[in-house]
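Running this now, will post back.
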Amino acid sequence: MKIELNEQDLLKGLAENDRNAVETIYKEYFKMVQSLVLSNNGNGDDAKDIFQEGMVVLYEKSNSPDFTLHCQLKTYLYSVCRRLWLKRLQQMNRFPNIMDSAVDTVSVEEDLDIHDQKSLELDNLEKSVGSLGEPCKGILEAYYFEKKNMQEIADHFGYTNAENAKNQKYKCLMRLKKIYFAQLKKDHNDE
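Update: finished.
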Protein backbone atom coordinates (compact mmCIF):
# COMPACT_ATOMS: atom_id res chain seq x y z
CA MET A 1 0.00 0.00 0.00
CA LYS A 2 2.93 2.32 0.65
CA ILE A 3 4.14 2.12 -2.94
CA GLU A 4 1.28 3.99 -4.59
CA LEU A 5 -1.62 5.33 -2.61
CA ASN A 6 -4.38 6.66 -4.82
CA GLU A 7 -4.38 10.13 -3.35
CA GLN A 8 -7.43 11.34 -5.26
CA ASP A 9 -9.43 8.41 -3.88
CA LEU A 10 -8.19 9.23 -0.38
CA LEU A 11 -9.24 12.87 -0.76
CA LYS A 12 -12.62 11.85 -2.14
CA GLY A 13 -13.05 9.35 0.70
CA LEU A 14 -12.08 11.99 3.24
CA ALA A 15 -14.65 14.40 1.79
CA GLU A 16 -17.28 11.65 2.10
CA ASN A 17 -16.23 10.77 5.68
CA ASP A 18 -15.10 7.32 4.56
CA ARG A 19 -13.58 5.65 7.61
CA ASN A 20 -11.06 3.65 5.55
CA ALA A 21 -9.73 6.78 3.86
CA VAL A 22 -9.35 8.59 7.19
CA GLU A 23 -7.63 5.58 8.80
CA THR A 24 -5.30 5.20 5.81
CA ILE A 25 -4.26 8.84 6.00
CA TYR A 26 -3.61 8.51 9.75
CA LYS A 27 -1.67 5.28 9.31
CA GLU A 28 0.46 6.60 6.47
CA TYR A 29 1.20 10.14 7.60
CA PHE A 30 0.84 10.52 11.38
CA LYS A 31 4.39 9.38 12.18
CA MET A 32 5.74 12.00 9.79
CA VAL A 33 3.92 14.80 11.63
CA GLN A 34 4.72 13.29 15.02
CA SER A 35 8.41 13.31 14.13
CA LEU A 36 8.18 16.96 13.07
CA VAL A 37 6.52 18.03 16.32
CA LEU A 38 8.69 15.90 18.62
CA SER A 39 11.89 17.19 17.03
CA ASN A 40 10.70 20.79 17.44
CA ASN A 41 9.90 21.26 21.15
CA GLY A 42 6.63 19.32 21.16
CA ASN A 43 5.26 16.17 22.77
CA GLY A 44 2.96 13.35 21.72
CA ASP A 45 -0.22 15.24 22.61
CA ASP A 46 0.95 18.23 20.59
CA ALA A 47 1.57 15.95 17.63
CA LYS A 48 -1.94 14.49 17.87
CA ASP A 49 -3.46 17.98 18.09
CA ILE A 50 -1.50 19.33 15.15
CA PHE A 51 -2.25 16.26 13.02
CA GLN A 52 -5.94 16.58 13.86
CA GLU A 53 -5.91 20.26 12.92
CA GLY A 54 -4.13 19.37 9.68
CA MET A 55 -6.78 16.73 8.96
CA VAL A 56 -9.50 19.34 9.49
CA VAL A 57 -7.81 21.65 6.98
CA LEU A 58 -7.44 18.75 4.54
CA TYR A 59 -11.09 17.78 5.07
CA GLU A 60 -12.28 21.32 4.41
CA LYS A 61 -10.10 21.58 1.31
CA SER A 62 -11.29 18.20 0.01
CA ASN A 63 -14.88 19.46 0.23
CA SER A 64 -14.07 22.57 -1.77
CA PRO A 65 -14.97 22.15 -5.47
CA ASP A 66 -12.11 24.35 -6.66
CA PHE A 67 -9.39 22.52 -4.65
CA THR A 68 -6.81 20.67 -6.72
CA LEU A 69 -3.86 18.89 -5.17
CA HIS A 70 -0.69 20.00 -7.02
CA CYS A 71 1.75 17.91 -4.99
CA GLN A 72 1.76 14.63 -3.11
CA LEU A 73 -0.78 14.36 -0.30
CA LYS A 74 2.14 13.68 2.04
CA THR A 75 3.79 16.96 1.03
CA TYR A 76 0.58 18.95 1.38
CA LEU A 77 -0.34 17.54 4.79
CA TYR A 78 3.23 17.95 6.07
CA SER A 79 3.39 21.60 5.01
CA VAL A 80 -0.03 22.35 6.56
CA CYS A 81 0.96 20.68 9.85
CA ARG A 82 4.38 22.33 9.81
CA ARG A 83 2.80 25.76 9.41
CA LEU A 84 0.28 25.01 12.18
CA TRP A 85 3.06 23.85 14.51
CA LEU A 86 5.27 26.86 13.80
CA LYS A 87 2.31 29.13 14.46
CA ARG A 88 1.61 27.37 17.76
CA LEU A 89 5.27 27.61 18.80
CA GLN A 90 5.21 31.31 18.04
CA GLN A 91 2.05 31.74 20.14
CA MET A 92 3.73 29.92 23.03
CA ASN A 93 6.83 32.12 22.61
CA ARG A 94 9.02 29.08 22.04
CA PHE A 95 9.84 30.21 18.53
CA PRO A 96 9.46 33.98 18.45
CA ASN A 97 9.77 36.24 15.39
CA ILE A 98 11.43 33.83 12.98
CA MET A 99 8.43 31.83 11.80
CA ASP A 100 7.92 33.58 8.47
CA SER A 101 11.56 33.61 7.46
CA ALA A 102 11.98 29.94 8.43
CA VAL A 103 8.94 28.92 6.41
CA ASP A 104 10.16 30.76 3.33
CA THR A 105 13.77 29.58 3.59
CA VAL A 106 13.44 25.77 3.59
CA SER A 107 11.52 24.12 0.81
CA VAL A 108 8.98 21.49 1.75
CA GLU A 109 10.73 18.88 -0.40
CA GLU A 110 14.04 19.56 1.35
CA ASP A 111 12.27 19.36 4.69
CA LEU A 112 10.66 16.05 3.67
CA ASP A 113 14.02 14.58 2.64
CA ILE A 114 15.40 15.46 6.06
CA HIS A 115 12.27 14.06 7.69
CA ASP A 116 12.51 10.80 5.70
CA GLN A 117 16.14 10.36 6.75
CA LYS A 118 15.32 11.04 10.40
CA SER A 119 12.34 8.72 10.17
CA LEU A 120 14.55 5.90 8.88
CA GLU A 121 17.05 6.52 11.66
CA LEU A 122 14.23 6.55 14.23
CA ASP A 123 12.82 3.29 12.86
CA ASN A 124 16.28 1.71 13.11
CA LEU A 125 16.64 2.99 16.65
CA GLU A 126 13.23 1.53 17.60
CA LYS A 127 14.23 -1.85 16.11
CA SER A 128 17.55 -1.72 17.94
CA VAL A 129 15.94 -0.87 21.29
CA GLY A 130 13.39 -3.63 20.68
CA SER A 131 16.13 -6.21 20.25
CA LEU A 132 18.17 -4.90 23.19
CA GLY A 133 16.51 -7.04 25.87
CA GLU A 134 16.21 -6.52 29.59
CA PRO A 135 17.47 -5.01 31.83
CA CYS A 136 19.12 -2.69 29.28
CA LYS A 137 15.90 -1.69 27.60
CA GLY A 138 14.28 -0.86 30.94
CA ILE A 139 17.29 1.08 32.21
CA LEU A 140 17.56 3.23 29.09
CA GLU A 141 13.81 3.87 29.00
CA ALA A 142 13.83 4.80 32.68
CA TYR A 143 16.69 7.24 32.18
CA TYR A 144 15.85 8.81 28.82
CA PHE A 145 12.06 8.61 28.65
CA GLU A 146 10.92 8.55 32.26
CA LYS A 147 13.69 11.00 33.28
CA LYS A 148 14.60 9.02 36.39
CA ASN A 149 17.89 9.78 38.09
CA MET A 150 20.57 7.13 38.60
CA GLN A 151 19.66 6.51 42.26
CA GLU A 152 16.03 5.80 41.32
CA ILE A 153 17.23 3.44 38.60
CA ALA A 154 19.61 1.72 41.02
CA ASP A 155 16.76 1.22 43.51
CA HIS A 156 14.31 0.00 40.87
CA PHE A 157 16.70 -2.44 39.16
CA GLY A 158 18.42 -3.66 42.34
CA TYR A 159 21.90 -2.15 41.91
CA THR A 160 23.86 -1.45 45.07
CA ASN A 161 24.37 2.23 44.25
CA ALA A 162 23.90 4.92 41.60
CA GLU A 163 27.47 4.47 40.29
CA ASN A 164 26.84 0.79 39.49
CA ALA A 165 23.60 1.70 37.74
CA LYS A 166 25.49 4.36 35.77
CA ASN A 167 28.10 1.80 34.68
CA GLN A 168 25.35 -0.57 33.58
CA LYS A 169 23.62 2.24 31.65
CA TYR A 170 26.90 2.93 29.85
CA LYS A 171 27.29 -0.75 28.94
CA CYS A 172 23.69 -0.79 27.70
CA LEU A 173 24.33 2.28 25.55
CA MET A 174 27.39 0.66 24.02
CA ARG A 175 25.36 -2.47 23.31
CA LEU A 176 22.57 -0.40 21.76
CA LYS A 177 25.11 1.47 19.64
CA LYS A 178 26.56 -1.81 18.38
CA ILE A 179 23.09 -3.18 17.49
CA TYR A 180 22.04 0.11 15.88
CA PHE A 181 25.08 0.36 13.60
CA ALA A 182 24.85 -3.33 12.70
CA GLN A 183 21.22 -2.70 11.68
CA LEU A 184 22.24 0.36 9.63
CA LYS A 185 24.95 -1.65 7.90
CA LYS A 186 22.51 -4.47 7.18
CA ASP A 187 19.93 -2.03 5.75
CA HIS A 188 22.60 -0.35 3.64
CA ASN A 189 23.76 -3.70 2.26
CA ASP A 190 20.14 -4.66 1.45
CA GLU A 191 19.76 -1.62 -0.83
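Confidence is low (pLDDT under 50) at residues 95-105. More later if anyone needs it.
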